[in-house]
Amino acid sequence: MREHTTRKIYNVWSYFYDLFWPSIVHRRTTRAIERMCIQPGDRVLDIGVGTGLALASYPKHAKVVGIDLSEGMLRRARRRIEEHGMSWVRLTLGNALQLPFEDNVFDHVLLSHVVTVVSDPVKLIEETRRVSKPGGQVVIINHFRSSNRVFGTIEKWLCPLCQHLGWRSDLCLQELAQATGLEVDFRYKLDNMDLFQTVFITNRPASRPERQSTAA
Ligand SMILES: C[S@@+](CC[C@H](N)C(=O)[O-])C[C@H]1O[C@@H](n2cnc3c(N)ncnc32)[C@H](O)[C@@H]1O
What we know:
Blueprint: H1 3-13, H2 17-35, E1 43-47, E2 63-68, H3 71-84, E3 89-93, E4 106-112, H4 121-131, E5 132-142, H5 149-165, H6 173-180, E6 184-188, E7 197-202
Parallel strand pairs: 1-2, 1-4, 2-3, 4-5
Antiparallel strand pairs: 5-7, 6-7
């Protein structure tokens, strides 16, 4: 999945996104942001911020930056910021695979439904870790391939179709963690039927393995 195609797909999605997606993700992102325990003055990066659905959940005392590839999605996010007067949020157009930020800047990074959208999830995690402070918090909310053989196979089969829609369905969390050296602190689903996981990680600079690809 290449970024220029992704941008076009999400420019189109931006017209419909807020019609159905909030009901799917809102409870999950709100819960995750509450658990992030963001302190006054903390710097937060929301990668693939989309239409800014999570923005109102961040505490006003944080300094929040949202970045996205799609002008269409960002236009919606800007409108949301103006409507709610969210002066603590700044938006940037850019590619998460080449983040336009210095090293060790952010206390918290949220990757909400974006790790399966980029063409190179390993590079995304590497960039995330580069811009996160050592000991900083990385939170991933996403669907990952099921460890159940039947469901996992179906998700692999569905992947070509999903890629036309703008994401992949075959990314395995364990493989991603192995390829990037991520150590998961804890993860949870909202309930047994939840298709998405919330994964909390501390940015430990320690082990960064030889680069392995999970690119689509
Ligand atoms: C499924 S949406 C998720 C939006 C939001 N985080 C949410 O949970 O509602 C994925 C978003 O990631 C953005 N995106 C995809 N690839 C990207 C990249 N390489 N750099 C920055 N943003 C990207 C898309 O434009 C889209 O807005």
